[in-house]
């Protein structure tokens, strides 16, 4: 029987990997015997994550602002020198801003768009250059149900995640001839530190749960199978797609 879910590469990068879902993605990839390199913007959090993840395998980390082209380009050069190649890139770094359009100013809008969209573009650009040279690689972007579903107080976030979906489709078309796959994972309501305030409010929590066909928030574990599928050989003929892991929210 064919090993449909074999993992052919050796090295993965996870942006925003020091905490939250990025941390869980990094841990899952380490458990697949991949060498994993994370980045985040806070040095203390990067070092803490490395300390906690080292029991699972070969983990490395750097402090990088993904909105800075200078920092991203230099980081990619450093990785290539130190590790030789990158087989998988998980563009996970992201922020959310909960404000109405009247409350939000241009600086706050720019912050969300810069981290979520520009950061994904810059990391994809510079890692894709290396993947094109090696004629292989997989890029997994992190979108959200917010890319399809209008959500209160998240105008910038929803717009940024909708951008990620079309970015994924367009980049997949561009890079396909170089044997590079580009796909996205779109989580629904997953229990994380980012939405802890929602889960602690009985009214908001109840409203959200009632909108989920499967009846509750998901956990980070619910996303891991999709991530591993997208980096494995089982997904080799899939590119340009966004896979929703949302308990059925988009169907409701």
From TrEMBL:
Q: Does the keyword Oxidoreductase apply?
A: yes
Family annotation (CDD domains): SDR_c
This protein's superkingdom? Bacteria
Which Pfam families does this entry report, sorted A to Z? adh_short_C2 (PF13561)
Record keywords: Secreted included? Answer: no
Keywords of this protein's UniProt record, alphabetized? Oxidoreductase
Which family would the database say this protein is a member of? Answer: Belongs to the short-chain dehydrogenases/reductases (SDR) family.
Q: What is this protein called?
A: SDR family NAD(P)-dependent oxidoreductase
Instruction: List the source organism.
Output: Sporosarcina highlanderae
Taxon lineage: Bacteria, Bacillati, Bacillota, Bacilli, Bacillales
């Amino acid at each position: 029987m064919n090993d449909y879910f074999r993992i052919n590469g050796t090295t993965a990068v996870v942006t925003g990997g020091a905490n939250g879902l990025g941390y869980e993605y990094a841990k899952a990839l380490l458990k697949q015997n991949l060498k994993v390199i994370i980045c985040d913007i806070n040095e203390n959090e990067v070092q803490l994550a490395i300390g906690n993840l080292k029991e699972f395998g070969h983990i490395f980390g750097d402090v990088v602002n993904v909105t800075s082209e200078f920092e991203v380009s230099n980081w990619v050069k450093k990785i290539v020198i130190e590790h030789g190649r990158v087989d998988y890139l998980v563009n996970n770094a992201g922020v959310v801003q909960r404000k109405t359009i009247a409350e939000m100013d241009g600086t706050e809008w720019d912050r969300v768009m810069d981290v979520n969209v520009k950061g994904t573009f810059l990391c994809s650009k510079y890692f894709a250059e290396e993947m094109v040279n090696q004629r292989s690689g997989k890029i997994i972007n992190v979108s959200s149900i917010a890319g399809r579903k209008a959500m209160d107080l998240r105008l910038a976030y929803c717009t940024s995640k909708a951008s990620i979906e079309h970015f994924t489709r367009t980049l997949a078309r561009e890079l396909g001839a170089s044997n590079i796959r580009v796909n996205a994972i779109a989580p629904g309501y997953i229990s994380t530190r980012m939405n802890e305030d929602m889960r602690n409010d009985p009214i908001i929590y109840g409203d959200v749960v009632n909108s989920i066909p499967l009846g509750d928030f998901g956990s980070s574990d619910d996303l891991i199978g999709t991530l591993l599928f997208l980096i494995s050989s089982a997904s080799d003929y899939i590119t340009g797609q966004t896979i929703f892991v949302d308990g059925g929210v988009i169907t409701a």
